Amino acid sequence: MPQAQPTAVPSDGLTTRQRRNRPLLMVHTGDGKGKSTAAFGLALRGWNQGWSVGVFQFVKSAKWRIGEQTALEALDGLHTQDGTGGPIEWHKMGSGWSWSRRTGSEEDHAAQAAEGWAEIKRRLNEQRHRLYVLDEFTYPINWGWVDIDDVVATLRDRPGDQHVVVTGRRAHPDLLAVADLVTEMTKVKHPMDAGQKGQRGIEW
Amino acid sequence: MPQAQPTAVPSDGLTTRQRRNRPLLMVHTGDGKGKSTAAFGLALRGWNQGWSVGVFQFVKSAKWRIGEQTALEALDGLHTQDGTGGPIEWHKMGSGWSWSRRTGSEEDHAAQAAEGWAEIKRRLNEQRHRLYVLDEFTYPINWGWVDIDDVVATLRDRPGDQHVVVTGRRAHPDLLAVADLVTEMTKVKHPMDAGQKGQRGIEW
């Protein structure tokens, strides 16, 4: 409900416009469905604003191509074709990241996660994108593949107008502490509890 | 995480494949962000499967055009152009629904909500779409503009393979009772609490 009003006015010396356009660090966490889907929905909004959007998909296998990738790449194609919307890049871990030409070892997920994060740091420093989707990035943090202090400092001190959304279960408390917006997706009822498996179009 | 396994095997006489492809009634509720965004993310998955997707946006004013509408209509354009993905229709309340040529009164929201629901019932009966997004449909239900018993019976007894996702705060308990999947988006932290207003690309 975009009509909602702030419940407090801060004394940060910013004008309403400056405060309104302040770049956000968002986290979608919890055990429920919708963490990634909502992040990809945000990518639609960014595309519509003509923003450069970078999606970095951690954890999921390269064999697994989800519908959102095809759809967002189709929107990127419209941008290339006639300048509609913004450019969208989709990079995923699993058999080497898109920007590194070499094929990575499927086994060495830790090294791949670290490589992905190093590239994201470079891009944040260059202000390459306006919106970053770090999908399932909580897992490599929790598994110790990426250093949480480095993540917190990098995201907190990123330059310019760069929005970042991080998804995944069990987000690290230090990440939540620096986030501007945190939503917990809570599972109230799920078909898997009734013995139903995931299905195409719904889970991917 | 699509790797998740069912926690129970039901004795419903269905094969795994039949059970897997059973149409779902999904509800995104709670006070947190991401209810609608996640539903529009599901529309991307449906589009990618070549499904016919119908979005019915309740409550939001017709003057308010969100980024997802532009993006999903662009994807629909790709379908029309060369058959990529599926067709997506976006209908919204506010100055009359898209299918009714007359301009509705801005004031009579109750009648417009009832008209929207009547059309959705017709479409469910005709099996017009494979995925229905009933965005912010919990509000007209809670305000008594649409009869909850009618909603429950219609959605429960809908024919064929039609997935439905309903979004909005305070979903009616009877709706939750018949839903297959319920996610509650809980607000943990929101920039509005720190005095920040909504901004383009993030809230719309």
TrEMBL record, chains A, B:
It is an enzyme of class 2 (transferase). GO terms for molecular function: ATP binding; corrinoid adenosyltransferase activity. The keyword Nucleotide-binding does not apply. Residues 1-16 have a biased composition (Polar residues). Pfam families: CobA_CobO_BtuR. Keywords: Transferase. The keyword Transferase applies. PANTHER family: CORRINOID ADENOSYLTRANSFERASE. This is Cob(I)yrinic acid a,c-diamide adenosyltransferase. The gene is cobO.
